[in-house]
Amino acid sequence: MNTLNGLESVVLRWGSATHTGARRALNEDHFLADGFAFLVADGMGGHEAGDVASSTAIDALLPLTAGIQDALEGDGAAGVERLLATAHGRVAAIVTEPGKEAGTTVSGVVLAEQDGVPYWLVVNLGDSRTYLLTDGELEQVSVDHSEVQELFDAGVITARETRTHPRRHVVTRALGPGAPCAADFWYLPVGEHDRVLVCSDGLSGELDDERIAQVLLEVPDAQSAADRLVHEALAAGGRDNITVVVVDVTAAGDDDGKRTAPRGVLVLTDEDTRPRADLVTEGER
């Protein structure tokens, strides 16, 4: 069980678990759960290409364990995007077999600070997911970059149909060749007693959000919750690699933050007072 005192009054406890699953020979997921960064990468490509891709991406993002202030001189989303661009280039260069391209998703959170207030900088690229459990309610913060998400958004299929659609595993953004490297970013306030879940689709593909929420509410210890979720995903079929990171905020500073829409949503209203994780230069801040 790990404890982190960072950004003055923020105290985190976390746990993690990963499993190859019941039907795969190789675990192509990798994760980072240390310091200030909690990320999951789900590799794609087969023939070990996905394994190499996800580990390469996580290696490129290792500086984030020191925090955005130290690793990126406080440069927030722009700094993380530069690291992702580095990871993208390294993954694109992977060649494990002629005709086989490697790729990987990345999703998770990095502890950051804005105007003296602690925030989660949420990053997502692909169909791994980041959730927030607060006040007993589970919210999927990230938005899947997948064909079924686009079909659902267009009203072509229902939420239930996304779980069984034959194209449900096709991602529209990723690190590596063949898909754009265009991550979404959000800022979320760090709330005391909040719980963050980051997972590969090996979890979300087996358990619906209602069951995930039940486990997170029933199991108070972060490591035990991660273990339980992996166990239940295996029991439900375990058709894919399963990776889970659970992060608990046991103490936080004043929660004066506001949530943000995904970067790239530029329409503002009078009610839209949420700080955005836009890529801006220092002169534009």
Automatic annotation (TrEMBL):
UniProt xrefs under CDD domains: PP2Cc
PANTHER family: PROTEIN PHOSPHATASE (PTHR47992)
Pfam families: PP2C_2
Name of this protein: Protein serine/threonine phosphatase
Domain of life: Bacteria
Matching SUPFAM superfamilies: PP2C-like
SMART domains membership: PP2C_SIG, PP2Cc
MF annotations from Gene Ontology: protein serine/threonine phosphatase activity
PROSITE patterns hit by this protein: PPM_2
InterPro entries: PP2C, PPM-type-like_dom_sf, PPM-type_phosphatase-like_dom
Domain annotation PPM-type phosphatase: ranges: 13-249
